Amino acid sequence: MVSPKIRIAGGGSIGRAQRAASGAPASASAARGALSVAPAAPYARVKQYVKQQLASGRWPPDALMPSEAELVAQFAVSRMTVNRALRELQGEGLVHRVQGIGTFAAPLHRVSSTLTIRDLHEEIVARGHRHEAHVHLAREEAAPEALATQLGVQAGDPVFHTLIVHFENGLPLQCEDRFVNPAWAPHYLKNDFTRITPTLYLLQVAPLWEAQYSIEASAPTPQEARLLDVAATEACLVIVRRTMSRGVPITLARLVHPGKRYALHGEFKP
User: Is residue 213 within 8 Å of residue 239, measured between CB atoms?
Assistant: First the structure.
């Protein structure tokens, strides 16, 4: 049984599958030898190639991609092999297929949805509740060195900073402190974030291919406690999330939720 993995900012994983002592290579060179005799399955090679080309921007959203016959010839594999690769890519939301016409690159919002990053407004509305947002800060700032490293810019370069509190049926549910790389979203600050959430806007303008999370329970800062209307000692769920596109950071966000008002759910099927 393979253990699930959750990638944490800064490296590492939760639930790494342990190697069986009897099957572990005795050395690094032995490990390389073991790997060399187990090449990727043909369908996996086709799938990885298509994903890499999508990530590089070779096929823009809704562009017609190579046909099954072209991929069969390129990789010298069976049509069934190519079909399996494309079916899995479609299941991941990276492509969409139209019978008799071909395979198309997915629109940006569908590519982004494979990361399971959901818009908080949509989550609240789906529960039949009312969402509103109060914007406390929306400005351009000079990036200090630590933040510049996280966003892939130089220290002192301009970055966008927003501080927004999201409410569900009048109760503060999330304090969102977000920094954005202007190279990916130059018009970010022109948005009315009482009408569109930063998450939804960024999903529209910047295709996300990777996300790093850090999740912990901790007390809020004094400012967060005031904005969320909770005691300074109350336990909160704090999520720090950095998203990237093609290896370039897009945004770094600190999302703070009162523990008694928020639950984080997930599902794993081995």
Answer: yes
